[in-house]
Amino acid sequence: MISRRHLLATTAATGTALTGLPALTPSAAAEDRSGAGLRVRSTTVEYAPHPLGLDTARPRLSWILDSDARDQLQSAYHIRVATSPDRLGEPDVWDSGRTASRQSVLVPYDGPALHPRTRYHWSVRVWDGQGRPSPWSAPAWWETGLLNSGQWQARWIAAPAALTTPPSLEGASWIWFPEGDPATEAPAATRWFRTSVPTPGTVRRARLVVAADDGFTAQVNGTEVAAREAVGVLKAWSHPVTVDVTEFLDRGTATLAVAATNAEKGPAGLLATLELTTEDGTTHHHTDATWRTTAAEPPPPGRTRTTTTAAGPPPRSWRPGAAGPGAKCSPSSPPPSCAARSGSPSPWRAPGSTPRRSASTKRTSTVSASAATSWRPAGPTTASAWRTRPTTSPTPSAVGPTPSG
């Protein structure tokens, strides 16, 4: 049996021993509770973990928080910025101190002015809603670039050549095979277009700009130079394709040929410009009444992808197209933007033969060889008709990012 005297003696000895232990200070107790609430998982400066060349005078700091507990909120943060990781304990640039705030995204740097071309290291810790601090985040850094124009010593340089502007579709008209109303209800089919352009002098520069509703394949003197699929490209007609065709042109006459495909029943059109620069100056050749069109695939010209024989003259069955309003486009790079051109619409000819629809492909099959002589004038689409295009198809104002009629 333990006597009362023995119990008191044991208790007294234990109490003496406990009083000999060091007491926890309030700050030490708070540190002991750290990690029970929030912790900083990652940091960014102006949305990047380690940005280089920042020209922002007061970059914005962000951090992502983690916690093993639910419903945790940041109640304060503490940011330190120094010129080296070793100095973050006693930062030589900026110490925000404990700042009561729930903000953890795009917190502006609020220290002294930053120096150009300098790397800054930083770290952050936060407190949760119960006042428990997190550990300091892993040191991160950002690097400044030149912070104002006065710090630049470089000069702009360029190749010894004059700057050129992109070709303009100014003056070009939307054209199509004269069937139905191409501005609203053209059949799903491929139509072929062709024209000849004189090249009286040495061609120094040549640019071809083509847009079609919906796809196309373009050739210059029998060589394919540009193409765009008729399906899978959103509003393809509003993004003209520009291609350098200088190497395909010689002194004499250039033959332009385009196969344009309307992927589904609805609006259809072709818009193109060839810009030629010779020793005599620059000329533009647009889609207009001089282009010819047919519903039957013509025989291939003499020049192909692998041969360079001269292309033959256009078939006699090609006839000039009818004049009429189309679209007026202003130069832009890229693509040209356009506005509708005013004018009275020209009547369309009666619908011609329509190629049969192939069951195995989205592209139309060609008609018989005898139909190759059934050439018709290329008809222009009208400005008024573009305004009434169905909502299922883009509504071009000719061609451009947001065509309008």
TrEMBL record:
InterPro entries: Alpha_rhamnosid, FN3_sf, Galactose-bd-like_sf, Ig-like_fold, TAT_signal. Pfam families: Ig_Rha78A_N. Transmembrane segments: none annotated. One of its GO terms (biological process) is carbohydrate metabolic process. Coiled coil: none annotated. SUPFAM superfamilies: Fibronectin type III, Galactose-binding domain-like. Residues 280-405 are annotated as: Disordered. Residues 320-331, 338-376, 387-397 have a biased composition (Low complexity). This is Bacterial alpha-L-rhamnosidase N-terminal domain-containing protein.
